[in-house]
Amino acid sequence: MSDKLISRSEDFNEWYNTLVLKADLADYGPVRGTMIVKPYGWALWENIQQALDRRFKATGHQNAAFPMFIPESFIKREAKHVAGFSPELAVVTHAGGEKLEEPLVVRPTSETIIGHTYAKWVQSYRDLPILINLWNSVVRWELRTKLFLRTSEFYWQEGHTAHATAEEAAFETRQMLDVYTDFAVNDMAIPVIPGEKSEAERFAGADRTFTIEAMMGDRRALQAGTSHNLGQNFARAFDIKYLDQNNTLQYCWTTSWGLSTRVIGAIIMVHGDDQGLILPPRLAPYQTVIVPIFRSDEEKGPVMAAVERLGRELAAGGIRVKVDDREQLTPGFKFNDWELRGVPSRVEVGPRDVANNSVALARRDVPGRAGKQFVAQDGLVDTVRQLLDDIQAAMLEKARQFREANTHMPQEYDSFKEAVQDGFARVWWAGTPADEARIKEETKATIRCFPLDQPEASGVCFYTGRPGGRMAIFARAY
Amino acid sequence: MSDKLISRSEDFNEWYNTLVLKADLADYGPVRGTMIVKPYGWALWENIQQALDRRFKATGHQNAAFPMFIPESFIKREAKHVAGFSPELAVVTHAGGEKLEEPLVVRPTSETIIGHTYAKWVQSYRDLPILINLWNSVVRWELRTKLFLRTSEFYWQEGHTAHATAEEAAFETRQMLDVYTDFAVNDMAIPVIPGEKSEAERFAGADRTFTIEAMMGDRRALQAGTSHNLGQNFARAFDIKYLDQNNTLQYCWTTSWGLSTRVIGAIIMVHGDDQGLILPPRLAPYQTVIVPIFRSDEEKGPVMAAVERLGRELAAGGIRVKVDDREQLTPGFKFNDWELRGVPSRVEVGPRDVANNSVALARRDVPGRAGKQFVAQDGLVDTVRQLLDDIQAAMLEKARQFREANTHMPQEYDSFKEAVQDGFARVWWAGTPADEARIKEETKATIRCFPLDQPEASGVCFYTGRPGGRMAIFARAY
Fold it and tell me: Which structural domains are found in chain B, ordered by start?
């Protein structure tokens, strides 16, 4: 951990990998492809969980838990699903000292076991809707690990709902996309673009997949959450049927939606800088850190008294505060340490501050003197609370400006090729899946989404020259 | 779900199995031995998690997440550990479409992967202590399932700590036992006996195992949580070493402690009755349910207005309240339904209550008229809050009296044999592990623990006649 953090512009990839380790967010597990989420990273995830869980419950969902083991045969019941997930499965063949009659897969996602179970639970329209969410981990075998972005096991939530009508399922799919958008924008300070996936990027087994797409600091895209309208595909594969009010047997309509620890990668890559993480105040494990400054035992007494009093006041005011009273470390070392870990604000208290009844208050998102002010100790809770709101808003605005500045509108393929090397391309699209595949082959860029927010008119496709195109966002993606 | 709940005295086992399903706590998973925890059961578990997590954080612990996959070779590093867990392992042999070079086990518990990782993380005394807790699920292969009590995959927390000295590890082990005891007594309303396990019942790899033991409604014992002093066993097996202040390399001292969804089984079996669950107010997903009573639309209007107003008031007062406004169900059906699900209190509002500005308030733990009173709508929040406190205290007291009434003090083996058919036997014990094994063989009773609360004197062993015995609790156990 003694090596310096490489600069973001120099090598974004290396900057990311080093930062995750140095900021104590996560570590590599002993099995290739696995991740240990360390306490600081998990505290961030717990805040993310709470922010989402509150929204899930407010929209009528309940949590539950389903087994991690799924009979291998279940995966094969939905044709597209098996094609999509088979190559990534981890398989349990032995248990309790014996070979199993049927191998079990460790869930890559739970649509199949949910389908099997809902078929048991649902008899009549009175049993609908079922609105369940699971917080768990899933396994998709990966050899090239990138912490938080691509690991064999990752943590997420998966919502699974069943409805009586197509309309209700469509409403649910969009409602949960709205929940994700609201969370991303307001809590992560990430200006995501909500939209629909193209056929090529759809979830294996879905009729329609919606997504929120974000631009990272290296101008690549990251899919930060998805919401799938599964139509009747899983209902037919697993026989989820209900008797309607006319006593007719009907297939259900189902949805699923998920958001994972991958968003921690997004927070790092959207907001971080050469000094380290910058965490959005709403989600940061510590919203402010208090660093005492003194040169002698004589100074230490009154400084620590003020530090501890202010720490108690901030905590009582509902601010997540850390008092850094570590011995044998200089204030400068502590500043760097908490900047690396992305704590949004810092309170410094020295002898002069004690005398003046003031503190120095620094904001992480504005480096150096420009981000530092001297404020009164009286009313510090309100001052810090206001600063945190300002930081949250400024982070969102900065990310939005960055995305806008790096979103291009090429009119034909040559300028498109340049555009996707350097950000998002916003273009009219009327091509075929084969056209899309060719573009991916040639540029590595894919359709991230058709934004929900479409211009009223349609336009001429930049690639095929066909009229009637929808607005699409192309980008190279994580 | 239409079949009646069998009475507890008639067939305790069948009563339990039926109740878990009928009260919507859990269901069987498709793979033999697995469990689905349904929303009502998971809401109970979430309350248990919060009650424990608060205590873990107050004692300085942080949450983290470790991978579920452990290289098979890790399990073999600690000799007693491998002997204890090998027969129960689920093994992943294939992943990503290929046979793995080394099979992976799905964690049965995480001491080994923790040991491997702490060895990397700990260099110096400054890195200690490590105080980490994990909320996850683990797999121990079981074929004879009993929901919550014995399933192949179960949910729990596992704490894993590393310390510089034996004294600190001993303190931690006992501190976490105290945390479990406090939680069990004050939140679950279960008067557990904290004590130490005999050698035969110790965790595989521990120097000392402490436990909290509870008496179920059928007078059998259930181990509700354990705290292990692992000494230097795992530190030596995984090379967890630190440089002390004198620059000498030392092995760490480690502990682990766990409590699982099995305690939901304990809550059911300690408190439940022939009508169903009785949930302790501190943990109940709903602490009170409001049932409207009306015969006509004319009555419905004012009744529902009062019901909704009272519902808002109770919720605003911090009481977890459910308004049961389901149509087409009679009040009597709803009473039975919520009694089955163990909601601690019930508010009934009919036309006469509206006229009198009163409600009927029933407590679940006292059946029939004796448990029902008419109280004013004014101040209902305080009235319900007080009632919930009374119920919580009464449930604990009732369970304590039941345990005392069924704890026997046999003086010799013949009366011991009778005693353990009918409750706990509190006896002086100075026997050998072989003696203990023989008693288990002959009576199915084991030493549940040597209670921490020992008489000052020692006594003559009921079995061997030897002097110097410690007080032990023997019982048949789940």
Answer: 12-271 (3.30.930.10), 288-391 (3.40.50.800), 407-475 (3.30.110.30)
